[in-house]
Design a protein that fits this description.
single chain, Helix Hairpins, binds adenosine-5'-triphosphate, mainly alpha, transferase
């Protein structure tokens, strides 16, 4: 199964995204938040650096959510019964998602504070 052509590996990756979407409500919620972030970028028109920061943060949230789900699936397959080590592993995975989600909220707040007043002034909604 190693060294498959790029087209095939891209297909596996897209299938993985579709599986995450189908099976995980958290991933669907995070995708909705990513769509809102894109809308905010389009409306606020921040500097290019903000586009990069938001893109990286959003991708990290989605990637960690998928990793969380993938590892949970493997853990449940290998060890379906209750075990304190399974609890520790799953709680740490949840902690990783929480950490990047807090970072994403901070990025959203900082971008809004940095950009919104100028954008409102551009639209004539507040004095420049
Ligand atoms: N086999 C297990 N043994 C011990 N504790 C478990 C086990 N499975 C789950 N838990 C505990 O229950 C919590 C929730 O587990 P679950 O598998 O439902 O993950 P979840 O975070 O709700 O799933 P998702 O990320 O898909 O929303 C875990 O964080 C862990 O504390």
């Amino acid at each position: 199964m190693k060294n498959r052509p790029f087209r095939e590996r891209l297909g596996f990756a897209l299938t993985g995204l579709a599986t995450g979407w189908r099976r995980e409500r958290s991933f669907r919620n995070q995708t909705g938040m990513a769509a809102l972030a894109l809308l905010a970028l389009i409306v606020l028109r921040p500097a290019p650096a903000w586009w990069a920061i938001v893109a990286i943060t959003t991708a990290l949230v989605l990637a960690l959510e998928l990793l969380n789900s993938a590892l949970e699936a493997v853990i449940d397959l290998l060890h379906p019964s209750i075990h304190p080590e399974v609890k520790a592993a799953k709680d740490m995975l949840a902690g990783a998602v929480l950490a990047i989600s807090i970072a994403a909220l901070l990025v959203a707040g900082a971008m809004t504070v940095d950009t919104l007043p100028r954008r409102l002034a551009e639209l004539g909604l507040i004095g420049a």
